[in-house]
Design goal:
Length: 439
């Protein structure tokens, strides 16, 4: 088994080895190389102590020196070089109490989370696979290194990582590892929201975002997003739907392109349906007002997991507008762009298409012509550079003051009325017309 290393990573291994130390590439880059995937970063593990690594290379950054990690800079590229380590005991299920540096590759590999992540390689020594990682890669299995109950008790985040890797690699989870997750999932309450967020994001952005369902099967969502379990238990007896809310959400996740905005919107867009569901006398379910309820839930969820403000704002807004339907006349589509916002409109179009894919044939029939009409109108509106918001209006606050209107709510109302008129007929967007007709 031969792995082609980037020349810079290879030169770091050579420098360490020529100085008498052991050095290997390790973890994700070995896994990805064996799978024929392009590794994100090339991590190196070595028997040399951090101070030694700092002496052997001209440019280093002590990025995680307390964990034994030094980043070696070669040109613009940084490589994390970490001294072999074995973690001390864990008392709070989060952080090792002490990190001791041990001169043993075996110990370093045995503290890693999954067999497929616990392999090392160097051109000199070939592949070091002590836990059956190669076999698990071939079989497509995520399996804890050692006793899964112990490993998840040490660090509860690993349970979420198991599902994240299953989603990234399209793998299954080994039954014993899975059983340990089911048992220990409640320990995820001890993990920081930020670490959970990063795993949720990676899972959602993966090739198999529908593996989110595994989180529910494993009892993880009941701890980190109980609403998702409720979504799976919310049927949609409606001629437009063929799935319950949860499975509809999974279908939409699969149909969205892999951006965080699209995938988070997909996850959250119908979360409010659990509260909004009303069954009429014919047995048909209605979900009136669900976008607003979903938006409230989305904002809470995203803030709980410390997503940045821009993400919270954009996702919440897309969730809020995702179900607006208009017959696609030019004025209607101008008003729609006004509601959604010009910046988010392309994302809105992408999302409603994905949303539709998660519904039934009756929905598809109704959607197709309306969507095509909306896209055509949108292009026409862009081509004509039609005014779409207050900032595009030919009249501004200062014009109104000059015309004798005092600043205040009344002025705001007036500007809004002008915009309404201009959205209906863009040719009205001149000072003469607007001041003549509205003031
Ligand atoms: P990617 O970078 O694509 O997310 P990766 O496998 O490189 O995947 P990282 O989170 O960067 O994952 O971690 C690098 C390596 O460190 C992993 O492959 C694994 O061997 C080890 N590792 C990371 N986090 C843990 C953890 N919580 N418990 C045990 N080992 C871990
Ligand atoms: Mg990595």
């Amino acid at each position: 088994m031969k792995i082609t290393l980037p020349p810079k990573a290879e030169s770091i291994l050579n420098t360490l080895q020529e100085a008498g130390y052991e050095a290997y590439i390790v973890g994700g880059c070995v896994r990805d190389s064996l799978l024929g995937r392009k590794p994100g970063d090339w991590d190196i593990t070595t028997s040399a102590l951090p101070q030694t690594v700092q002496k052997l290379f001209r440019r280093t950054v002590a990025t995680g020196i307390q964990h034994g990690t030094v980043t070696v800079m070669l040109g613009r590229d940084g490589f994390e070089v970490t001294t072999y380590r074995s973690d001390g005991t864990y008392t709070d299920g989060r952080h090792p109490d002490s990190v001791s540096f041990v001169s043993s590759l075996r110990e370093d590999l045995s503290r890693r989370d999954f067999t497929v992540n616990a392999m090392a390689y160097s051109p000199r020594n070939g592949l070091i696979d002590l836990f059956g990682g190669t076999e698990d890669l071939k079989a497509g299995i995520i399996r804890a290194v050692g006793n899964p109950v112990e490993r998840f008790t040490e660090d509860a985040l690993r349970m979420l990582r198991a599902v994240r890797f299953s989603a990234q690699l399209g793998f299954g989870i080994d039954p014993e590892t899975f059983a340990a997750i089911r048992k220990l999932a409640p320990r995820l309450t001890m993990v920081s929201k930020e670490r959970i967020r990063d795993e949720i994001s990676k899972l959602l952005l993966s090739d198999h975002p529908d593996h989110f369902e595994i989180l529910a099967d494993a009892g993880i969502t009941s701890v980190i997003m109980p609403r998702f379990d409720e979504m799976l238990a919310t049927p949609q007896h409606s001629p437009f739907h063929i799935y319950d809310v949860g499975h509809h959400t999974l279908e939409v996740l699969k149909a969205t392109p892999p951006t965080l905005l699209q995938r988070l919107t997909a996850l959250l867009h119908d979360a409010g349906k659990t509260e909004a569901r009303r069954t009429d006398e014919r047995g048909i379910d209605h979900f009136k007002g669900h976008p607003a309820l979903s938006a409230v839930y989305a904002a809470d969820f995203l803030r709980e997991y410390r997503y940045d403000n821009k993400t919270v704002e954009q996702v919440t807004h897309l969730v809020e507008v995702h179900d607006i339907r208009v017959s696609p006349t030019l004025p209607n589509v101008r008003r729609l762009i006004g509601r959604v916002g010009e910046d988010l409109f392309p994302d809105f179009l992408t999302f409603i298409q994905a949303d539709n894919q998660g519904k039934g044939p009756l929905s598809h029939q109704e959607f197709a012509p309306r969507f095509q009409g909306t896209v055509e109108a949108y292009h026409e509106i862009l081509k004509n550079r039609d005014p779409l918001s207050l900032k595009d209006l030919a009249v501004g606050g200062s014009d109104l003051i000059a015309a004798g209107i005092r600043p205040g709510p009344e002025m705001g109302e007036l500007l809004k009325a002008m915009l309404e008129d201009v959205l209906e007929d863009p040719s009205h967007n001149t000072k003469d017309y607007l001041l003549g007709h509205f003031v």
